[in-house]
Write a structure and sequence with these properties.
Shape: globular
Structural class: alpha/beta
Radius of gyration: 16 Å
Length: 202
């Protein structure tokens, strides 16, 4: 399968939940582009889906904040656009924060997406203001000609918000990742079935 990335409409949209589900269901290997903070998304994915192969983060920062802040506080320098994905295929890369979360002192997450050419699942979460964040994210991806494999609503459902977005963007695929309390394997396989039925090519 081709490499893909998981992006989000903001921090805590549910990217790690979606990443764990997709890695489990499709057999992707997991890679976190940049990790900020001691509580790692990699550890969550490995705990949730123990058999998933994971790679060390591209950049590891100890400061639980935007990467550009971590760079300053920890006195480190790096070029985020030069981070290498571990393999040329079958790797799912989880980004940090939203599309315009700083990657380093100069670039955003969306800049890495545009440079790498990775198609993306955009993770959305329903809350007051989420339609605005989702539309802005979709429009930003479209403006940069980044392939959107689909929008995945993570866990918290709001059928009215979802219906509004689906009517607005009839050219996009929309999926739902249910709450893991229903059973991780069941939820992951349900998401897989939705994606396969849609005809999305991975």
């Amino acid at each position: 399968m081709k490499n893909i990335c998981i992006s989000g409409i903001h921090t805590d949209a549910g990217k790690s939940h979606v990443s764990a589900a997709l890695c489990y269901a499709f057999g992707y290997e997991y890679f976190k582009l940049i990790q900020a903070g001691a509580l790692t998304d990699e550890s969550f994915v490995k705990k949730t889906a123990p058999h998933v192969i994971s790679h060390a983060p591209g950049i590891m920062l100890q400061t639980p904040a935007s990467p550009h802040v971590g760079m300053i506080k920890e006195n480190v320098k790096f070029d985020g656009l030069s981070i290498k994905i571990p393999k040329d295929e079958n790797v799912l890369t989880e980004l940090a924060g939203g599309l315009f979360c700083p990657l380093d002192e100069n670039a955003y997450m969306i800049d890495f997406m545009a440079k790498s050419g990775l198609p993306t699942f955009l993770v959305a979460r329903n809350y007051l203001g989420s339609i605005n964040h989702t539309v802005l994210s979709i429009e930003a991806l479209k403006a940069r000609n980044i392939e959107i494999l689909g929008v995945i609503f993570s866990q918290i459902r709001d059928e009215m918000s979802q219906s509004f977005l689906q009517n607005k963007y009839k050219d996009l695929n929309f999926f739902v990742l249910e709450d893991f309390d229903l059973g991780f394997e069941k939820v992951a396989n349900n998401l897989k079935e939705q994606i396969l039925r849609s005809g999305v090519k991975l």
